[in-house]
Amino acid sequence: MPSISEDHYLKSIYHLTSRKKRKPVFTNELAQALGLRPASVTGMLQRLAAQRLLHYRPYQGVQLTPKGRLRALAVIRKHRLWEYFLVEKLKFRWHEVHAVADLLEHVDSDLLIHRLDAYLGYPKLDPHGDPIPDENGHVPATGFLLLSSLRPPAQAIITGVTEQHPAFLHHLERLNLHRGTRLQVRQISEYDGSMDLLIDPSQPLTISRQTADQILVNSL
Amino acid sequence: MPSISEDHYLKSIYHLTSRKKRKPVFTNELAQALGLRPASVTGMLQRLAAQRLLHYRPYQGVQLTPKGRLRALAVIRKHRLWEYFLVEKLKFRWHEVHAVADLLEHVDSDLLIHRLDAYLGYPKLDPHGDPIPDENGHVPATGFLLLSSLRPPAQAIITGVTEQHPAFLHHLERLNLHRGTRLQVRQISEYDGSMDLLIDPSQPLTISRQTADQILVNSL
DNA sequence: AAAAAAAGTTAGGTATACCTAAAAAGAAAA
DNA sequence: TTTTCTTTTTAGGTATACCTAACTTTTTTT
Ligand SMILES: [Mn+2]
Ligand SMILES: [Mn+2]
Ligand SMILES: [Mn+2]
Ligand SMILES: [Mn+2]
Fold first, then answer.
1. How far does residue B112's CA lie from ligand 1's centre (Å)?
2. Listed residue (A148, A150, A155, A162) closest to A192, CA to CA
3. Which residue among A69, A145, A185, B147 is buried most deeply as judged by most CB within 10 Å?
């Protein structure tokens, strides 16, 4: 019953809500995130509110209801399970998965998702290190840190990223930074915050503050 | 660019055309096959004709153009590859696959289908014994016979079915008839055409003419 | 506290894809 | 060859999901 458009609105509201602590999500930021015009967003928000998927007060933004949140998490679960499948089974690269998972996430079959989950061995994290919600909408906690928060001579393992754009993921591949890559922080520039790292086979590497801000790690 | 509705029309016209030798497909049979009203079908046929996907002459039925035929075969290819995936990897049963493949067949990504095909080992037949068209729209010939065309004491192996309804596939499962089942025709009733068979571990079984008409075999 | 700017909503329009009811065309029967 | 029946099309309507342009509400600046 939920349409592709509805899926995208709910998912987008969920992500915007969690990325910033602030409660309501505003029409314009949603329009921005979805690549639509604000007038279109207003119309859809009113219809989603009529379905009790979110609370809508004119001019005051929206918040998901528990029902809306569960719908959003169901879509996110499907998205991340498919991403895992694409990388682990079909040998997709990090930057190729997102666009395809964005199509597969709308396939509506509980049986399919259940069998897929079993086939994949009930993974807890997607290829970007994002947690995969379970069928009840529970999101496992990860406790990952931003690489940019470490200080020399911290050692860590890359566990994920906070940014999905193909250009960024491509950038990481060129730098030879992947999930599972072990690294040590050697030095941080006082001037621009860039980090000197030593990765896997004692190879030195310098990355920008901007890049370090998007990388998640497990500290060792 | 092709919508789910367009996919279904093209696929349905293709199947109706090949199942009967007759050239054009008529509005009412399409409406019947798609579960829609004739008036709706007329409207869509006119729009597909405007896209040069089929030839439409009012009151005279339609025929796919080469372009329309390729579109139909691309959808059928996706459908059958997904069916193969569902059965071989996700352990779906014969009767469960069709509904789910009918959703997955609309996911529009050449990269995905290409990688899926490779992952599955470039299968030539789907779980119902139907040939999987290649990326150029070539449909491999199978040369299977109808079980009902055999005469005692012919021996054969079940290779597929010509009917996809879950009720029929369920019926076959209850009879213990699967793809790969070896059988011998013992006797055919003069009265109602029912067939006495001997299957795998010399187990006798009688099936109706109607059932035998929907089973494809390779004669030994 | 006005005025100006920004944010959000309403009004009216488009395309897709369905529907019912009425009209028209073609095929079959009288 | 008319009449009747069946098939198909047209006409007009609905819901979804977008759009632009005009208007209203809220926020910020003067
Ligand atoms: Mn999507
Ligand atoms: Mn992801
Ligand atoms: Mn389908
Ligand atoms: Mn099949």
1. 15
2. A148
3. B147
Calculate the CA B184 to chain-centre distance: 25
Of B188, B209, B187, B183, nearest in space to B198 by CA:
B183
Res. A97 pLDDT band, cuts 50 70 90: very high
Q: Does domain B145-219 have CATH number 2.40.128.260?
A: no
- B75-141 folds as Arc Repressor Mutant, subunit A (1.10.10)
- What average pLDDT does this structure show over B191-202? 86
Question: pLDDT digits over A133-153, tens only?
Answer: 999 999 998 888 888 888 988
Burial status of residue A62 (CB atoms within 10 A of its CB: 0-12, 13-18, 19 or more): buried
**CATH class of residue range A4-64:** mainly alpha
Instruction: Determine the residue type at A59.
Output: Y
Q: Which of B100, B107, B115 sits opposite A109 (nearest CB)?
A: B100
- A53: Cβ contacts below 8 Å, ≥ 6 apart: A6, A10, A64, A65, A67, A68, A71
What DSSP element (H or E) covers A160?
strand A155-161
Nucleotide nearest residue A47, measured CA to C1': D16
Nucleotides of C under 7 A from a protein CB: 7-12, 16-22, 25-26
Average pLDDT over residues A103-121: 98
SS3 A164: coil
